[in-house]
Amino acid sequence: MKKVLCIIAPIFTVAYSLLYASLGGFSGNRSALSKIGLEHPLLFTIWGITTVFTLFSNIIIGFKRTKYKFYIALLSIAAIGMLLTLCFDFDYSKYAQYILHCVGSLTFSAVTGTTVFLLFLLTKNYPFAVISALILIADLILLLIFKETALIELMPIFAGYIMLSVHNLRKEKEKIELIGKA
């Protein structure tokens, strides 16, 4: 089951995300995942659900190796963010919905990214902690410069899939060290 969640789910979600994003192109503000969702709300909902499932299941697998439980609260907050994103339109003419959508999207992105970073930091996977921090910073800078595009939105998510999968499928250091001492 772990290999399905760490390998098959990310591959499926990446493929679906790329197909979904291709509906709006990959560059320019009209390619933003939420803008595509205005024309294809069901496909947007499927994208959101598969993204949450894949990220959250891999985060849970990673944290199960630790004594920490705070990730449950963080994932709950991130899930509420995605729920707001999926339930409210990214339509400026519906200003209240637009604001709730944006707050939800920002909450989901920031809290999920922070949770992934903390997982790597607390499990002493420092290379992945640094890489995830740099990706989050780069993504923020690119969003400020170019606004939303599918490529900029998907970059940290895809990086998260890869790093979480590698992290979760590697052998635990403690077990390796104990075997070496035996």
Explained architecture:
The protein has helices spanning 2-21, 33-39, 41-64, 71-87, 95-122, 126-146, 150-169, 173-181. The chain is an all-alpha fold and 182 residues long. Helix 2 packs across helix 3 (41-64) and helix 6 (126-146) runs antiparallel to helix 7. The longest helix has 28 residues, at 95-122. The radius of gyration is 17 Å and the shape is globular. The two termini are 30 Å apart. Mean pLDDT is 91; it is low at 174-180.
Short description:
By secondary structure, the protein is mostly helical.
List the helices and strands and how they pair.
Elements (H helix, E strand, L loop, with lengths): L1 H20 L11 H7 L1 H24 L6 H17 L7 H28 L3 H21 L3 H20 L3 H9 L1
List the keywords:
80% helix; mainly alpha; 8 helices; 182 residues; disordered C terminus
User: What fraction of residues sit in β-strands?
Assistant: under 5%
**How do the helices and strands follow one another from N- to C-terminus?**
HHHHHHHH
Measure the end-to-end span.
Answer: 30 Å
Instruction: Give the count of helical stretches.
Output: 8
Mean pLDDT: 91
Report on the biggest sheet.
Answer: none
Q: Using DSSP, what is the number of strands? A: 0
Coarse morphology: globular
- Residues in helices, as a percent range: over 70%
**Uncertain ranges:** 174-180
Rg over alpha carbons: 17 Å
Please state the structural category. Answer: mainly alpha
